Amino acid sequence: GLTCTQMLRKRGVVGKFVEFFGSGVSNLSLADRATVANMAPEYGATMGFFPVDGQTVKYLHQTGRQQEKIGLVEKYLRAQGLFREAGHTTPTFTDVLTLDLSTVEPCLSGPKRPHDRVLMKDMKGDFSKCL
């Protein structure tokens, strides 16, 4: 989330709606998606969201929604072209940033300054420098 936040702050997404998409999205857990989307105030966007996909349907099942309603929601979203699956055409976006998830390294940041992230491997040195 912090790497993504840093990228988005640098791009300047204040007042924008940010949709996360691409092949890597399917590898993110629901908790990871919620974390990144809920960080919209930190990266400055009006909102951040992930497209509706199989993870969404799984969440509806896990939270006890009625099968009939889940089926209706999924059918409607598919009919409207809002249900994302691998191989589907990517929508046209006004701006696109690319983040290769395999390049993301563990890092840490304080709650008031998420853009001042420090890689975990550099944490000891950074801490000592701050003393």
Task: Write out key terms for the chains shown.
131 residues, two-stranded antiparallel sheet
Q: How would you describe what is shown here?
A:
The chain is mainly alpha-helical and 131 residues long. Helix content is 40%, strand content 8%. The chain has 6 helices and 4 strands, in the order αβααβααββα. The chain has helices at residues 2-11, 30-38, 40-43, 54-62, 67-79, 123-130, and strands spanning 17-19, 47-49, 107-108, 118-119. A two-stranded parallel sheet has the order 1-2. A two-stranded antiparallel ribbon has the order 3-4.
Brief synopsis:
The chain has 131 residues and is mainly alpha-helical. The protein has helices spanning 2-11, 30-38, 40-43, 54-62, 67-79, 123-130; strands at residues 17-19, 47-49, 107-108, 118-119.
Walk me through the topology.
Layout: H1 2-11, E1 17-19, H2 30-38, H3 40-43, E2 47-49, H4 54-62, H5 67-79, E3 107-108, E4 118-119, H6 123-130
Parallel strand pairs: 1-2
Antiparallel strand pairs: 3-4
Mean pLDDT: 88
User: How much beta, percentage-wise?
Assistant: 5-15%
- The radius of gyration is 17 Å
Instruction: Give the H and E element order.
Output: HEHHEHHEEH
Helix content percent band: 40-55%
Give the number of DSSP strands: 4
CA(first)-CA(last) distance: 27 Å
Arrangement of strands in the largest sheet: 1-2
What are the segments in which pLDDT stays under 50 over at least 5 consecutive residues? Answer: none
The general outline is: elongated
In this structure, how is the largest beta sheet organized? Answer: 2 strands, parallel
Total helical segments:
6
Helices and strands: which structural class? mainly alpha
